[in-house]
Specification:
This protein has 346 residues and is mainly α. It contains 14 helices and two strands; from the N terminus they run E-E-H-H-H-H-H-H-H-H-H-H-H-H-H-H.
Amino acid sequence: MANVYSLRIGMLSRRVDSRACIWNLALLGVTLVTILLVLSRGAVPLSPREVMHILLAPHQTIEGNAFIVRELRLPRVVLAVDCRGALALSGLILQSLVRNPLASPDLLGVTSGASAAVVAFLSFGAGMLGQQWMPLAAIAGAWGTALLIYLLTWRHGVSPYRLVLVGVGISALMGAVATGLLLLSPFNTTLSSYIWLTGSVYGTNWQDVTSLTGWLALVAPLFVLLARHVPIHELDDDVDTSVGAALERRRSALLLLSVALSGTAIAHAGAIGFVGLIAPHMEKRLVGRAFVSSVLAPVLIGANLVVVSDWVGRTLFLPLDLPAGIFISALGSPFFLYLLIRQRHH
């Protein structure tokens, strides 16, 4: 059993799970090593020592190997870490919120809604408005789909069971809309849309990283405010109400937070699926179920999944640069089937 300690600083008090701390530190170390190795491998191989020298010398002239590391490889690694960390947190919140281990932004229609909005934007709006507005289209699609699901689910409150059923239906509908738009789009738009729908951090620059960081900074205060309320939603609704929880208000706010996290991530790196499903399950196996103490673990796990997948797509199939989403889906599909089979036997 994990040892839990109380940390008190003045009037503030926080329970600290020693098991969660150990695993978080271990995962952080693995993540840093993974990033270092990924930055050193590519069409131009570098040694980890040379990469460390480049990263620790910020005033060095950006040319040659320094340009490769700091301007080509590092931005896509940072974007992959931020985006998939946000998706992993979104999945963790959703699984607790609907009390279903199969819940994720993909299953509940958020990813499909963002995808349909982006395909529509690329087909009809990018020529007039410019590509810089594409993240806003994805976020609007994710939020609009979530609102539609919420309204269709509402019946004297929102039932987690109805939320999943309606989400699956809307996800299929949005997928059909995206496919229909692809058929009506010009060839060059269809090609761009397919790459985005698969999920990729190819061509990422520091402007993309800055944009993502700004959106996540807006979401962060909401996460800090609501994180401690997540565990209570894993209980039965009657129990939640009996302990005085403002059930519907907090459930709505947590759903809003989950959509904001996933919509922001999808907007900047495409519709990479299954990260929001896999990372929370791996986190619970390693760290346990204490949400606040273990919140860093799914972020690091999700980040490692995408960073490694992007590295595989970038290096093992040269001169091609394959989208990371291909390899995440290859891992996520059997994992989803495993969870489905395990649920049948419980």
